[in-house]
Predict the 3D structure of the following.
Amino acid sequence: MANDFSGIRNIIFDLGGVLLNLDYSATERAFEELGIRDFRQRFSQLSQDHFFDDWETGKLSRDEFFQGLQHAGCDQLTEAQITTAWNAMLLDFPLRRLQILQQLRLRYELFLLSNTNEIHETAFNELLRQTCGWNSLGHFFEKIYFSHRVGLRKPGKEIYERILSDNQLKAAETLFIDDSPQNIEAAKSLGIRTIFLEKGMSIEKDVFLPTRP
């Protein structure tokens, strides 16, 4: 392993950009082509407006999400068009990352923490089935925290505190891996150890390396 894991008993993984490859620009382009010219200003990896915050914390229904984007672009946009554009950012699960999770479960308690939503959950579960045959990421983790299901999202400290409390984890024994700096800083402020996956880094190349004989 390339990093110091001494004293670590628990690992919290982000999903998009850590386990699942993403391309935010694909969704930006798709919505711009549908007539929502300011989509990049409304939603990005680093920030988003209240509409998307509400969507990712379960405060908006699927119908309200569709209606909001139809109002922002064109009332003639179909639900299928919006779903396709919204899911364009979801690329693939590299099989090696899933294998790493299986190996890590032998030594650590693993948790998943993701800012996500019900449309993406359906789509990435299908990508997972296509990759390895499993229907849910629950196969790899002790517990999963999806923002739209728990009503909290990163970088709010409450979601990290919830995970620590629910599972009786000590912050100093817990590692959090994420690709967004604001999420890393929030975890650090609670004493959680962190690894920031900068652009171009991956867990298979830069974090969990094969053990050499």
User: Anything to note?
Assistant: The chain has eleven helices and five strands.
